[in-house]
Amino acid sequence: MENQVTETTNTDVAVITAGALLNHWQGHRKLSRKVLNAFPENELFGFSIGGMRTYSQLAKEMIGLTSGGLNGIVTGDWSTTPELDYFNPEADIKSKAELLAAWDEVTIQLDTLWPQIPAGRFNEVDKAFGQFENTIIDSILYFIDNEIHHRAQGTVYLRALGIEPPAFWDRW
After folding, report:
1. Is 63 exposed, middle or buried (CB count within 10 Å of its CB: 0-12, 13-18, 19+)?
2. Where is the signal peptide (predicted)?
3. Helices and strands (H and E) in the chain: how many
């Protein structure tokens, strides 16, 4: 009897479950929260380098993408709760405690909304925030990548302020 070998390429194999992706994202959110918490309050809302936004503005964007993104994926309503103005440092959240509370609220939203995403929805195409059309999984990966990018900016800000940032690998 001849041995038959069925060839499967590694691109044909699923390598991560929806639950594992949620855990991965939540690990990044835990680290991003540590970076946020490391900022002195006055620097959180006032310090920037080279004309970039303050870390409070970047954190509000991360909060908004996660909240609005998951709301949109699950309900079709791409609005953020709490509603935030990413670009106006004087609007809405005015303290570190409020920013951390909003962060924590959105972490709960993520845990609550994620299980409501039907399995087939990940491969559907939608226009996130009415701006860019992509598959849901690609939008989620963008939300995670955006957070990593802004957290890295926060890490640079902390170093510029003489503060040792949390280790980039410390996601748990």
Report:
1. buried
2. none
3. 5, 2
> pLDDT tens digits for 122-149?
999 999 988 889 999 999 999 999 999 9
- Report how far residue 93's alpha carbon sits from residue 56's, in angstroms, rounded to the nearest whole number: 9
Helix (H, G, I), strand (E, B) or coil at 14: coil
Q: Is 24 annotated as a binding residue?
A: no
CATH number of this structure's domain 16-160, picked from the four choices 1.10.2020.10, 1.20.120.450, 2.60.40.10, 3.40.470.10: 1.20.120.450
Q: What is the pLDDT of residues 20-72, one digit of tens each?
A: 999 999 999 999 999 999 999 999 999 999 999 999 999 999 999 999 999 99
- pTM attached to this predicted model: 0.88
